[in-house]
Design brief:
The longest helix is centred in the first third of the chain and has 41 residues. The protein contains three helices and no strands. The chain is mostly helical. Bound molecules: prephenic acid.
Length: 89
């Protein structure tokens, strides 16, 4: 894979960092999928027991947690996470 530089030491360091980035990306993918499965299970369990599909107070709490930690990008990320679990509104 192109490191974007001809300088051998820099290219070696970039390859090393990219290995860790790839590990992190895979962990994010795995966690994303696990979260979506769990969220779907919560929704199905609640609806099967006569409850609501969504709990907006819980969604607000999650959005706030991500906003405090990551700013406006965190809010966008949390919206995508929630959509992955419970589907579009
Ligand atoms: O925590 C719940 O009650 C869920 O249903 C999970 C979840 C989520 O993905 O975090 C999904 C939908 C709800 O509106 C709130 C939160």
């Amino acid at each position: 894979m192109d490191a974007g530089t001809q300088e051998p030491a820099a290219a070696a360091r970039i390859r090393e960092i990219r290995q860790r980035i790839d590990q992190i990306d895979q962990a994010i993918i795995d966690l994303w999928q696990e979260r979506a499965r769990l969220s779907q299970e919560v929704g199905a369990t609640r609806m099967a027991s006569g409850g609501t599909r969504l709990v907006l107070s819980r969604e607000r709490e999650i959005l706030e947690r991500f906003r405090v930690a990551l700013g406006s990008d965190g809010t966008q990320l949390a919206l995508l996470l929630l959509r992955a679990g419970r589907g579009p509104l």
